[in-house]
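Handoff note, outgoing to incoming analyst
You'll be picking up this chain. Sequence as last confirmed:
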Amino acid sequence: MKIDLACRKTNGLTLLELIAIITILVVLIGLLLPALSTGKGSKRSPCVNHLKCLGLAARIFATDNEGKFPWQVSTNANGSREYVKVPDTAFRHFLAMSNELSTPRFLHCPEDMERTEADNWFISNQSISYFLGLDAKESVPQVLLAGDRNLMTNGVPVGSCLHVLTTNRKVGWTAQMHNNAGNVLFGDGHVDALSNGRLQELSRSSGEATNRLLIP
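Most recent structure output, in case you need it:
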């Protein structure tokens, strides 16, 4: 009896089918990798946007106050200068910009798990993820205006305080937020994600004799 080979059912894959499957897998991997990469950085983008909004609010305030930011204007003129030397009341400087900021949620970084996002302007330091550069000026674009609070100097995390950056101190970021990196808002309103090395470089060449940072 002859067997009709054309009618036999085979379970193996042909070479063309195998190549087609491999090609599809390669395409799928290529599509998934950018998505995974975006997912890792998804919390950084809101933080950058928050700092940009904060920078815009500070500049609007300065426009109405002879180029001065809230912490450079007396409380008698709706500023917060009298609170500069009191870290426990750092939130007062942000509160002074409540008319320029649409929501206090811009004061919180999504990666700052030790602070909580506020949904109204009854805020405290616990609602704030960003330091303020007290020596910032609109006329000096590369000065530090604000940034993520996860700072350290000489390997030691900097807590809530009025901190002065000096050239003999090595400044960097802790692993608390953004995986040993951070975002910084500059005097001209732009925001950069900085490595430890870049932060160190900018702290030494900001264009200001001193770099006083108020960390909430």
